[in-house]
Structure formats: structure tokens, C-alpha cells
Amino acid sequence: MKKDLDLADIIEWDIPNWSVALRYWAKNTKYDFPSIHALEIGSRHGGLSLWAALNGATVLCTDLLGPSDEAIEKHVKFNVSHSIKYEALNALDIPYLGKFDVVFFKSVLGGVGRSDGLRNQAKAINEIHKSLTKGGELWFAENLTASPVHQYFRERYVKWSTNWRYMTIQEINNLLSVFSEVKYITVGFLGTLGQNSLQRCILGRLDRMGVDRLVTEAWRYIMIGIAKK
Q1: What is the homologous superfamily of the domain 7-228 according to CATH?
Q2: pTM metric for this prediction
Q3: How far apart are CA 109 and CA 112, in angstroms?
């Protein structure tokens, strides 16, 4: 990767915990990056597309209304624009059949579930499955319901959380049953409780040092995995 690249350009939030996804995906995929034709769903600021393109993948970077100007500018800055195309795309209606080797997203299903809840979340997974080539992979990192502590702080301090449908590990695994194989880990407990980026960084590092392993899997707040079609 480029020397001037900061993980904040890719992950943005609770970097110590969410960045585990990058290492997990790279280590556990069957693909070599230069051969990957990938789709990012819910790109927001284009961080994951940047990461994939820097590693040699060809990427279609998408969001509901299209990727932001910040995403495009970021890709220009790091000289990967030639490897990335852009499109407005609804995860509930992906207009591709058997096209992508890899589809990836970070914290998308909760937003998809704002309306019609679990039904829309299931539909999004089925649309992703349809868009993958035979043997293709879904790389996912998703917010979990997690512990009563997380639920309390979300209700008290995160205004939009009441419209976000957080999922349990079991719910996600049930939706992924359409895939032939699913591997996952869960990470993070303290990191999301910080009130600013510095606090989240410090707390996230404590998680990576072992704090999150002291709590049950269901109380960690990020589920990271690969589902193979």
C-alpha cells in the first residue's frame, strides 16, 4: 500500500476493530487480488473500494444515490481511478447476474433493514448471492445487536440508531444459509463506546489487546466473515 495511506481513509470508525476485516478477508479468500472483479455496496466514502483497488482488484463502487464526491476524490488522490467504476445501486435490486467474483460491504444490513426489517435484509443477501459468479464470495463486516451495554448507549447517544436494524449472529447466519460455506469471527466491545475518534482508537486497541475476548461472542459488536456461493 502507499506510504501516505492512513487506515482512516479506508475504515473511518473504530479503526482497530473494523480494520480486522481487511486482514481477515485477505487471509481467507481463495482469490488473488489482481484477478478479482468486485462490487462494493454502500460505499459511502469509498474506503473499501480504495483498499481493494490498491491491492489490484477491479471494482464497481456503489451506493444508493451513487458514491460521494469524497470517494471519487480519494480514489484520484491514490491513483486508483483507472481500476474503479461508479454507479448508483440499490442493494435490494442488483441488476447483475453471476458477474462478480467478490461482493463486499461494511455496516450495510442495518440500514437496509430500516424498512421492512428482516425481510429486506434477506432480500439484499439474496440479491448479492445472485450477482456472484459460481464459487464467488461475499465479504462482510456488520454491526451486531451486541450487549445490553451497547444497546443502552445507542438508545441514549446515537439518534439514528432507532431506525437501524441491528442483527444477531444467528440472524445473519440464517440469511447466509443460501451460501455453500460461511466462515466468520466476531470482534470489538469497547471501541464503539468512545465519544470521539481518539477515545475509540484507545478503546479499540484495548479490545485488540484482549478485552473483547473476555466477553461472550454474542456481546461483541462486529461480525466479520466470508460466505462462498
Answers
A1: Vaccinia Virus protein VP39 (3.40.50.150)
A2: 0.94
A3: 5
